[in-house]
């Protein structure tokens, strides 16, 4: 670890802290339908959109209708993406003449982008047309993020309202999230990224004549080198390099801002065309946390308890700092098995575990990006998580296992941690022996049951599907690594899918089993969890407010923050520690004792 | 239910046009303020594209600086098939690969350990950069192969070393493609005759 590395982490934290309030205030205004400076441009668009789509902007919804609208819109737009993938060969903006995406992969991808996961079993530059990327994938980046924000705001309303049946209008919340927050910010961010070298064009791929032709062994159909009659290896000369192009910057901006994470190109934000400079990397990291951090302030503002917003922010910040410190330490320490390679930090190199990392980012920026992307449900990567050290990789895995509540996905992070808040005040209530209250609302058995349902669906999906995969031959067929790391690969896949993260231990290959099982996990991890969450919101909105008494557990203090952090860690640790000890922890011990697989 | 279904369909269609077509087209239009960057910083030599400034190319001859190893595509360095190795830290394939590369590089220069970035693949397989340590490690070989003094090569390396952005972001790095092009240009000015013999491999 270096001083400069810590300086970068510190500057990042400072920037996020400074942006949280303005972002939060702005979003509170947007969702409370107050006037903002964007109204002169956006208000006419909004009104026209409602007229064209038969939306009555003044009518509010109960939690049941809100859920139905969310599910219907997701189903329709998912079908749209599936059809686009299956018909791209006949549609325009396909300069590389890519054929249709195969059925099970198209289904997996449609589920992936609709659920804000952006798990990618395909290689973008090899199979997706520009039209599919823009109108299919990037479109979902916008709407799945907007839906997440809408759901979070609906939950906040549930807490803030008294004796009301409704929690807002899904279409209005979505529309305002898109046109006031996501679209304007993406436009600006995309241009900043272009100025750094992220490409944005509709050219067909370019062919470059290599400066030095490349001599390579000819490999036969069986994957083995070919020999000629005299027993000499046959060599081929490669003289050209095909360079992928495309409208990347516009997609890159919303990919980070909407915590989607699906790269235009296979290697995501580690590719020089998606993330060319340390500054573009910094901008992308800020975009990932911008809305989730801001929403904690929105929470405080809309519930009239700004201190509660900051207490939640503090819990997230603590977990974030623990994560980045551990990952940075583990990666800077390097891999002891790489003998003869200089992994020390000197004036001329950062050293550390550089497999799967880019030189321009080094260790600090890679570890920071990886921590942020797994804390949020983003899943963009600027280095390959599969090649992280066992402990560094374990932190990334644990970040997702905690439910992605460390700032978390756009919207999803906030409603995720609010479920933990409900659980925390319930536990505090048990400890003092009184009916638990949350900001004046009594938390009763229905709320706790729904909160527990939300919390239990998550490990159930992960552990059952990961266990099935490690027993089925189809589950083991496409592993890229063996030994404990193989288990980590499977575990990471289902954790990432159910958590709607989308980052990967990407050595795991696609086959029909994984395409379908992962699609199921992604849809369940999003939509099965939304319904109990909205049920809690609807039930809270109906309740009366009781005045605080001496027995009320305050949700604005450092004690509350500490309790919240403990609940999150205990739930996560109790659930996942056994399997973590068979995967990353065992691998760490093997690595230190010099064993390979 | 039915009303929400109708809205879902209409909403999907209309927002697809706005967010999926109009927005990227608008960004593409505005990106023309940075024409080179928006198209991948292509380098053109005598009317032929010879690569992108920010995408690695394979260099194996001794008179060139070598980039980091790559597993993008079947032969590496495929700029339409970016990929990392995705090998875990205890992978035998990884450990053996690094050992072989270390042995090869230490035959070239046995007085020091090999900078780690020179024997590890990057995330994209297209990392255009190496660390200043990795450039310095190769300077002796390049100088020998070109028959020029090591000081000239080191000076060129220093000129092509990019420091941290704004003084603190990222890490210092040397762009291999640009450095190699500069070496070739330097050769043409200085002792071009010696190159032919060493370029025979």
General description of the model:
The complex is a heterodimer of chains A (597) and B (201). Chain A has 597 residues and is mainly α. Helix content of chain A is 61%, strand content 5%. Among the domains of chain A are: 206-243, no CATH class; 410-592. Chain A has 18 helices and 5 strands. In chain A, the strands form 2 sheets. Chain A has a two-stranded antiparallel ribbon with strand order 1-2. Chain A has a two-stranded antiparallel sheet with strand order 4-5. The model of chain A has no long low-confidence stretch (mean pLDDT 95). Helix content of chain B is 47%, strand content 9%. Chain B has 2 domains: 1-39; 52-85 and 115-198, no CATH class. Chains A and B meet through helix 1, helix 3, helix 6, helix 7 and strand 1 of A and helix 1, strand 2, helix 3, strand 3 and strand 4 of B. Strand 3 (341-342) of chain A pairs parallel with strand 3 (114-115) of chain B, so a sheet runs across the interface.
